[in-house]
Amino acid sequence: MKLQVAIDRVDMERARELVERIAGEADIIEIGTSLTKEFGVRALEPLTRKATLLGDIKTCDEGKYEFDLGFACGFKYLTVMGSSSMGTLEACAASAAEHDGVMMVDLLECDEARIEKIAVFPDAVYCLHTSVDSGATKDPVAQVRAFKRRFPQIARIAIAGGIKQNQLSALAAEGLDIVIMGSAITKADDIQAACRACKEEMQ
């Protein structure tokens, strides 16, 4: 299981500082939607030279353009909303394949019928996502188990939404691809130590 650390709602200087601190500790560093909207992916390109980055661009249309741009700027992972049209999802998947990148499908507010319809991209990571506005994921392990039972055809799963360090061992045992954490690490007194502690918990 990979540890993805999300950086959100900070200025560019702080984002750069956080990437430098976390690089080498986290497997993936997420440049959150707030940063991609405020600064744009081109301005964030220098950060991609420091670590493996995910751009949480939350594409919902113009899939080829947005994914081609994100990958050209050095991002390894990019996000597309599961609520997007199949045309958009297909365009994003094709772009990811062309650029040796990874498409992450954000399942925010997607119901079971929608997930069933879009569960056709074997190389994509499907992210169980509880929104910030809705609060933390109450029982992420149970959520993952239920999802895997319902959608056994989805091999690569990520989870985000208030994940805590003491939940990581049980999540790792579920065979997740990626666990996503944010302020639990980025707001810690010692960010690098928090990263290391989370990685150890995942072993």
TrEMBL record:
Superkingdom assignment: Bacteria
Pfam family name, one: OMPdecase
All residue ranges annotated as the Orotidine 5'-phosphate decarboxylase domain in the record: 2-198
InterPro entries: Aldolase_TIM, OMPdeCOase_dom, RibuloseP-bd_barrel
GO BP of this protein: 'de novo' pyrimidine nucleobase biosynthetic process; L-ascorbic acid catabolic process
Gene Ontology MF annotations: 3-dehydro-L-gulonate-6-phosphate decarboxylase activity; orotidine-5'-phosphate decarboxylase activity
Keyword list, A-Z: Lyase
SMART domains, alphabetized: OMPdecase
Matches recorded under PANTHER family: 3-KETO-L-GULONATE-6-PHOSPHATE DECARBOXYLASE SGBH-RELATED (PTHR35039:SF3)
UniProt protein name: 3-hexulose-6-phosphate synthase
Native source organism of the sequence: Bifidobacterium lemurum
